[in-house]
Structure formats: C-alpha cells, structure tokens
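Tokens for chain A. Residues wanted.
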C-alpha cells in the first residue's frame, strides 16, 4: 500500500510498495496503482488519522469532495488535486465520472486517494466505489475516518449517547437518492424507538422530517441542535426544539453542511457551552451572523458523511 515501509532493504531499493520499479518504469511488475478510499473526518486537520495523512501525502492524485474542510484541502499541492465534489447552484460531478476516473488513474499506475468527508462508508458512497473498483480489478483499501455523526457533534459537547438520556442512537441521511420511489427512512419507527436521532445532509429537508417525527407523536419540546461546518474554522451551533426546528435553522442562517441532532442529548450543548475549550465553536444564534452559501460551499449532495 502507498506509504508503507514494510520491505527489507534488499527489496525496497528495487521496488516501491506497489511493485513499481524504483526508477518508475514498472519493469517486470504490475503497472496498476492502488486506490485508497480515505475518510478525512469532520474537517479539522488535527482529526485526520495518521494513515489518512500518510496516504494523502504519498498519493499521485487526490480526488476530493468539498467536505474534507478547507485546511485539509489547502495542505494538498494544487497540482495533484482534482475536485469531484458538488457545489451550490447546480454544478456537480456525476458519480459515474468519479468511478470511471478512479479506474482510469489507477490503470495508469498512479496511486490515488479518494478523499471524503467523515467516514467513506457512512453515507459517503464509498461502498459503491469499492464495488466498482473490485469489478474492474483495481486494488483498493479503506481508511476509516471520524464520522461527523459522532465527532462533529462531539466537539460541540453533544454526546450521541448518555447514560441519563439516551441508550441508543440512529444515523439517518436527510438526502436520499432522488430516483427512489419512496423514502427508505421510517420516521415513525424512529420516533417510537426513542434515543438520539442524528441526521446527516438534512438542512434542506429539515421541515419535512421534523414534521414527520411530530406527526408520529414525538414531543415538540424534544431538544434539537444543528451543527454547521463541524470543526471547520467557521463552525457554528444552533439549538432549539423539534417543534421550532425550521425557525431555529432560519433564525441562525444555518447552511449545509450541517448535522442535525434530535433528542435529549442535544440539550447538552447549553449545559457545557461555557466550558468548551474549543475556540472554533460559535453559538450561531448568539452571534447574530448569517452566512450565504457560495458556489464553493459543500451542498447536501456532496459525497461524504456530513457530511
């Protein structure tokens, strides 16, 4: 795998970890590169895993979404970055193109990182890409990342489980495949289950699913929190209740990417906010600012789990 140094000295001088000749000509060895499906975590470069950083640095090409966070993307040389993300205003890269590009680059002998926000297998389409690579006989690895469903809200002092408040947690996508005939999310069952509900990519659909939960009998006074751009330099948090979900979003000007937390644990933010030693956390309702989404902002269709 790229970046590993597991061979002895006699072997290492002849080939790199992918079987390519030290001079780069690949003589006598496979010319197929390796694809690493890498989770970047919620966005703070300090939350990249060691393996993720290693793979990014060693890669010949990095195909990235918008969600890895500006500091992480800025740490990658521009000449080896390819943006395959999706942006507000309708500009987007079809998944079919990304799949095809991964195979194309690896077939040229390049080591490729497919960089995603959060974890590649949590609503990040990493499973689709893994199957596509296997179908085309391209070797790949998965480098897990800190999912924003846990880490992104955790930095705001919100635990997804708590012995006094929630013994279960459900992770849900708020942006399903638009080609589906009907939603695969049973909001009524989630409302009846109790515990914490964490919705990723759910800013735009907030009125619909909050209403579905209320119609299913969930208490309108259930605490709710919206964590925008978790761990990014401009991270913001807004809190309210399920019954005031849409007003909480609109009053704070919350934009994608953001994570929604529904359940008693969402009230933890208010109890611990004063002592959070994380200067990135800003109370969106208290600061009175609203940010307009730009074409460079990640949208809810962006691959990656917050992703």
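Reply:
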């Amino acid at each position: 795998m790229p970046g590993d140094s597991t061979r002895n000295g006699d072997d290492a001088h002849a080939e790199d970890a992918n079987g390519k000749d030290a001079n780069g000509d690949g003589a006598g060895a496979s010319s197929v590169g390796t694809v690493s499906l890498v989770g970047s975590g919620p966005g703070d470069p300090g939350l990249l895993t060691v393996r993720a950083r290693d793979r990014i640095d060693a890669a010949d090409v990095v195909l990235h979404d918008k969600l890895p966070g500006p500091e992480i993307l800025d740490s990658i040389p521009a000449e080896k970055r390819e943006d395959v993300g999706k942006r507000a205003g309708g500009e987007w890269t079809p998944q079919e193109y990304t799949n095809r590009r991964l195979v194309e680059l690896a077939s040229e002998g390049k080591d490729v990182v497919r960089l995603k926000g959060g974890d590649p297998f949590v609503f990040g389409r990493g499973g689709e890409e893994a199957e596509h690579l296997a179908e085309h006989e391209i070797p790949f690895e998965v480098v897990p990342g800190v999912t924003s469903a846990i880490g992104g809200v955790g930095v705001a002092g919100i635990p997804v489980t708590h012995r006094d408040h929630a013994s279960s947690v459900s992770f849900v996508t708020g942006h399903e495949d638009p080609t589906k005939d009907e939603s695969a999310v049973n909001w009524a069952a989630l409302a009846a289950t109790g515990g914490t509900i964490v919705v990723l990519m759910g800013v735009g659909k907030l009125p619909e699913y909050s209403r579905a939960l209320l119609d299913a009998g969930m208490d309108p006074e259930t605490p709710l929190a919206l964590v925008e751009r978790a761990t990014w330099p401009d991270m913001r948090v807004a809190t309210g209740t399920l019954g005031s979900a849409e007003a909480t979003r609109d009053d704070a000007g919350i934009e994608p990417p953001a994570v929604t937390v529904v359940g008693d644990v969402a009230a933890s933010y208010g109890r611990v906010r004063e002592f959070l030693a994380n200067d990135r956390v800003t109370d969106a309702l208290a600061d009175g600012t609203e940010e307009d989404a730009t074409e460079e902002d990640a949208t809810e269709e962006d691959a990656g789990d917050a992703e």
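The two ends are 27 Å apart (CA to CA). Residues 157 and 276 are 7 Å apart (CA to CA).
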